[in-house]
Amino acid sequence: MSHEADVVVVGAGVVGLAAAAALASSHHGVVVLERHDRIASEISSRNSEVIHAGIYYPAASLKATLCVAGRELLYARCADRKIPHRKTGKFIVAAEVSEVATLEALRERGIGNGVTGLEIVGPEEVQRSEPDVRCEAALVSPETGIVDAHALSVSFLAEAESFGAMLALCVEVVAIERSS
After folding, report:
1. Claim to verify: residue 43 and residue 54 sit in the same structural domain
2. Which residues contact 155 (CB under 8 A, 6 or more apart)?
3. Residue of 3, 27, 52, 85 marked active site
4. Catalytic residue status for 3
5. Within this chain, do residues 123 and 107 fall inside the same structural domain, yes or no?
6. Can you give the pTM of this predicted structure?
7. Count of the separate structural domains present in the chain
8. CATH number of the domain encompassing residue 5
9. How many CA atoms lie within 13 A of 121 on its CB side?
10. Rounded-to-integer distance, Cα 66 and Cα 131, Å
């Protein structure tokens, strides 16, 4: 294969396609190479599709900052482009009394990271939503959600292509050579 491009993105998963969309929107000539016969067929097809709230990362870390900011951008993208997603929220449960302190520490870390709506609830509150769950307490994370990773990948591909990027399927990169 011999084509010229300003940028070659290797891999048409959600990250590669997001990078291609961003690069193509900046007027770079972008080619995305994917060794499989379809996009998002490796890690992007096997992830949990969770939109993380940002409570687990160390306070004020780059991971925490990017998770919280990225979560908001992802929800906005999904809403704007009608990508299937849902802000489901989640319970992080303490099965034993000794685990409640861990929930409190997670709550404080999350608040420090800018996560809103975190609260610790008792077992009665949990059972109202999830009758089969038995616990001493739970941390409610209302910002956690899920997204259709394939639809998200397709949206990034469409955006990249709208700026002139090209996708080449069934092309495995075996060597790269830089030229002037």
Report:
1. no
2. 77, 81, 83
3. 52
4. no
5. yes
6. 0.89
7. 2
8. 3.50.50.60
9. 19
10. 35
